[in-house]
């Protein structure tokens, strides 16, 4: 989950979502989350199955946002849950062993509660304010990220307002990866954008 693409069709500037995802993967994306907030269940499952087939040859895991049923139906590699979604214990009981479970943390309490849980990653949500999610919580900022790094045993992903200019500092301050919507989906070239972000992550990693 070094470079984690979260999909949003409306951010893709009218371009085909599957084209955007494949370009991004060719540029260096290491994990993809299918995030559909309005799609009906059948269309969501169809899209997940198609995306899984696209990603498989690249060995890039597919994560489903919010919906354990869709993750199971599409044999996705995992599920991402937030603080208003299905509770962790229920998800853990439903999802087969070996699947990825990622969780959003919006507060210090969420971070501490997650210490007992078997998570593949914890996402600091959001690191910075972003127009891509209108109902987001108070941003963590770099000081918040440093606190989480010191108090969490989980791999950390940061999401919200990440771009090529602020990625290195997030990595240097303890993030193990970044998750983005607009920096890739809305880029003129999703492939080049992913390539540049990946290069920046790797530079940041060398400095810590
Ligand atoms: C990687 C990642 N981090 C955070 C979120 C946000 O999850 P959530 O708070 O449940 O909000 P929605 O995305 O469901 O609107 C995420 N999806 N992915
Ligand atoms: C899904 C989500 N969760 C927290 S912020 C966010 C949106 C991130 O989008 P962007 O990378 O365009 O800021
Ligand atoms: Mg959610």
Quick take:
This protein is α/β, with parallel strands linked by helices. It has helices at 17-27, 41-55, 68-73, 88-94, 108-113, 141-151, 167-172, 182-185, 190-206; strands at residues 3-6, 31-34, 62-65, 78-81, 100-105, 121-124, 156-159, 177-180.
Describe the structure.
There is one protein chain. The protein is an alpha/beta fold and 208 residues long. The chain has a single domain (3-195), classed as TIM Barrel. Helices cover 40% and strands 16% of the residues. It contains nine helices and eight strands. It has an eight-stranded parallel beta barrel, surrounded by five helices. Helix 1 packs parallel to helix 9 (190-206). The mean pLDDT is 98. Residues 65-66, 82, 85 line the site of magnesium ion (MG). This is Thiamine-phosphate synthase. Condenses 4-methyl-5-(beta-hydroxyethyl)thiazole monophosphate (THZ-P) and 2-methyl-4-amino-5-hydroxymethyl pyrimidine pyrophosphate (HMP-PP) to form thiamine monophosphate (TMP). Its cofactor is Mg(2+).
What is the CATH class?
Answer: Alpha Beta
User: Kindly state the mean pLDDT as a whole number?
Assistant: 98
Radius of gyration: 16 Å
Low-confidence stretches: none
Helix content: 25-40%
The CATH superfamily name is: Aldolase class I
Q: Which H/E pattern describes the elements?
A: EHEHEHEHEHEHEHEHH
The name of the CATH topology is TIM Barrel
Largest sheet: 8 strands, parallel, barrel
Q: How far is the N terminus from the C terminus?
A: 18 Å
Count of separate structural domains: 1
Number of beta-strand segments: 8
Shape, principal axes of CA atoms = globular
Strand order of the largest sheet: 1-2-3-4-5-6-7-8
Label the structural class. Answer: alpha/beta
Q: Number of helical runs?
A: 9
């Amino acid at each position: 989950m070094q470079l984690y693409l979260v999909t949003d069709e409306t951010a893709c500037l009218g371009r085909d979502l599957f084209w955007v995802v494949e370009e991004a993967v060719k540029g260096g994306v290491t994990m993809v989350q299918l995030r559909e907030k309005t799609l009906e269940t059948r269309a969501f499952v169809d899209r997940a199955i198609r995306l899984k087939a696209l990603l498989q040859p690249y060995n890039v895991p597919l994560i489903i946002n919010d919906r354990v049923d869709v993750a199971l139906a599409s044999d996705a590699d995992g599920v991402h849950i937030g603080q208003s979604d299905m509770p962790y214990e229920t998800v853990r009981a439903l999802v087969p062993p070996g699947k990825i479970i990622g969780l959003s943390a919006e507060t210090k309490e969420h971070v501490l509660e997650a210490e007992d849980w078997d998570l593949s990653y914890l996402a600091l949500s959001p690191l910075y304010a972003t127009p891509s999610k209108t109902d987001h919580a108070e941003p963590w900022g770099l000081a918040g990220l440093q606190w989480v790094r010191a108090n969490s045993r989980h791999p950390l992903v940061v999401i919200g307002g990440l771009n090529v200019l602020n990625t290195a500092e997030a990595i240097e301050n303890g993030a193990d990866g970044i998750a983005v919507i607009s920096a890739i989906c809305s880029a003129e070239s999703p492939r080049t954008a992913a390539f540049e972000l990946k290069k920046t992550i790797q530079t940041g990693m060398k400095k810590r």
